[in-house]
Structure formats: C-alpha cells, structure tokens
Protein: Glycosyltransferase
Organism: Musa balbisiana
Amino acid sequence: MDATAHFVLVPLMAQGHTIPMVDMAHLLASRGVHVTFITTPANASRIESDIQRARGSGIPIWFVSLRFPCEEFGLPPGCENLDCVTSREHAVAFLYACRTLRGPLTSILRQQNPPPSCVISDTMQYWTADMARELGIPRLMFSGSGGLFHLFRHLFLQNKSNDLVNNGAESVVLPGFPHHIELTRAQIPGSLFLPEMAKFREEMMEEDCRSDGVVVNTFSDLEAPCIDQYQEVIGKKVWTIGPMFLCNRDAAYIAARGNKASIDQAQCLRWLDSMQPSSVIYVSFGSLARTSPSQVIEIGLGLEASNCPFLWVIKAGNRSAEVETWLSQGFEERTSSRGLIIRGWAPQVMILSHPAIGGFMTHCGWNSLLEGIAFGVPMITWPHFAEQFLNEKLIVEVLRTGVAIGVKTITPWQADKDVVLVKKDDMVRAVSRLMGEGEEGEAMRNRSRELGHKARAAVEEGGSSCENVTLLIQQIKASMKPAQ
C-alpha cells in the first residue's frame, strides 16, 4: 500500500494569502492527502467555519494554531493578520515576528504521524526552508499572486531594476518579458525596492531560488507565456493548480469562504434574483485596501450617477461616522430600487457566480481577479498597492477583459490621509464603457466568457490544473523516505 503523503501548508497571515491556501488544503485532502494547516489563534477564529467543517466531514486536514508574538515585536495585542497593520514599521515587524514560529512548528511536526513529506509555504514565510531541510523534506514556494508577478519579480531583481528605480528612473520595462508592460515608479510593488525590506527581500529571494518548486494559483490557458518563461529562468517545476476555489463545490464552503459574511446570504440572493441578467456592477476592494471617507462618498456619487444597478461592499474600516451620515442622508433611499450595500465581509464567490452580475469593480488583488475570470465577469480595475498595478496590465492590456479606472499611483495606507484619487465622472465613464451596449463592452464580455470556460475546464478531469495536482502528489510520494 502507498504511504500517505503529508503536506504542511504555511500561509502568510493575510486574507489574500490565507484563503487560497485553505482552498489548497481542501483540494489536496480531497485526493486523500494528509494536510496540516498552520495558523494562529486570531486567524483560526476567522476560518472557524472551515475548521469545523473539516472536523465534521472527516477529511484529513489538521489545523494547528501557534501563538503569535505580538508584544515581543512591538505589535498591538491581537495583531496577527496584515489587515491589522497600519504602518510600514509594523508591517516589517510583523514579517519578522512570523520567523519565531519555526521552533514551535518544528517540534510539532516531529511528533506527527504520518510524518511530513512536504512543506508548501508562502514566499514570505521563507524561514520554513530551513525547517524543511532540518526535517529532510522538500519545500515548495507559494504566493498569493499570479504567474505574471512571479516572473516580473524575478526579472526585476535579477536585472537589478530596483537600482534604476532608486536612482530616479521614472518607469521600468523589463527586457525579454513575454508582454510589453511598463510600470511607473509609483506603480511598482513597494516590497521590491523599499530600503526597510532590503534584508528581508534578499533572504526571501535566496530561499526562493533554493526551493524545490513553485505552486501558483493560476491555470495554463490564462498565463502560459509567463509560466513557461518563469519555469525556464528559475530552472525548476512550476505547478499551476488553479483556480483552486473551483475544486470545492460545497455551497456552504463557498458562501463562508474567507470569513463569515456580513449579510444574510438568502437576502443577498433574493436581491440578486430580482435583477436582470448581467445588469449589476459589483464593487469591492478586498480585505487590505483602505478607502478614505471622502473617496467612499465619491464612489457612491459615481454609482448613483451611472444609473446602473450595483452591489457595493463597504468594509468595516470605511464605515466612519462621516460615511454613515452621508449614506443615511438620502443616498440609500434614492438608490434602494437598484442598489444593495453590504457593510463588512461579502460572500464574493457566491455573488460573482450569480447571473445578475455583469461587471466587477476590483482592487486587482489576485484572488479577486481569478474569481472574476473564473465566472466570466469583465472588470473595472482600480489597483491600490502591491502587485495590483501589474495585475491591471494583465486584465486591461493583455487579456483585454476590462477597463482601467485611471488611477496612476498607490492609495496611501495611512488611514488619516483623506485622499480622493477617483472622481464621480471617472466612475460614470468606466461603468458606461464596461456595462454599455456598444462594441467595446460586448467584445470584453465575450472574451471574459471564453476565459471563464477555460478556467472551469482547467480544474475538471483531464484539465491542466487537475493533472498538475495529480503529478504534484505523485512527485512528493516518489520523494518520500521508506518507513522505518
């Protein structure tokens, strides 16, 4: 009888990184693989429904909660997720605090049966590489980004493009890239050249180069040129196994994926059912993006002026007294026949899969893009930070399945900066282009639907991502040491 493979999954504690790794845990466990998923107390509470569902169903996922050293690194109590961080200094401290988990985790893994046979960890949890070598098992690198960013980051650092940026270059075009992509200095992911990240970045890249392979939440038909080139330049296997969330069709899992929804899902579905097919623009900016009160109000004015039905997610951090006062002074009443506001966390996959959704205004986080792509939804792109401007290029210039809202620089992270980067008229123009009946909108919708079909085919039996999962498990089993 074959020995049971045991995968240890170590995400970065940020919702955009954790959610796809929860999807990965379910995907691997559905193939009979034993999975250990590493988290912390505060983060475990966010995925409590996943933990309880795994226990109740008997699928082989073990969630291990490790104490996170907030106070020791000058972080506020309970600051165990990047969405709790409010400054660069705390962000760097948070990343270094993660490294202290190595000792406790190694001790736990040494006692497990079956013993670990592989570690898949976030690229920013590079300390797991030393642990994997100590345990004598492979370490595969994972990131919450797509293949485009993996290749861009590698070429950017290998070509020392960060030196050009730090010396005043206004933009960067990488030579030899499969697509012509130009980013201005203000749009380049900050982690690639911020001075305070230099040592962390160097250590992370060193371990990326020493990893035994890379797992990416994408699919071949979406990013084949980037994946092929990335695989060639790093000289190791790149496993494309996405969109991973499509591999779990359990309705309860999909509805509660990532967090407990802040709206009764039956209510949300009833509202969507009352709308015409492909008529609603869905507006949501993920878990980390911060939107100032003035910008939230400007978004509302633009949605109202567009005369388009909308479903708008306003995160808890944006629900300031100023915003709530403005919403209550007539906006919700004026738009009640064609608008629904969700305050907090939305069941995004459930929403995007509904036939009433005709467009998605997004911050361009990779998970959100992949979800929109998988359901054939064209997008309005509004990048905020990280690799999101790069993702916008993929949607608008390469795939041609969306329109840019026109933002040229990052949105300040500090909550006290009340900036407005997008005006009401910008909103109206973008919604009109995406949702209109002209040739441009129809062409984007057709291309989006075609990509959605390819995404779903990738995870079906015989699809590229489905086959890659099989090959990945087979390779890890082949590398396992015989039982003593």
Q: What stands out?
A: The longest helix spans residues 439-459.
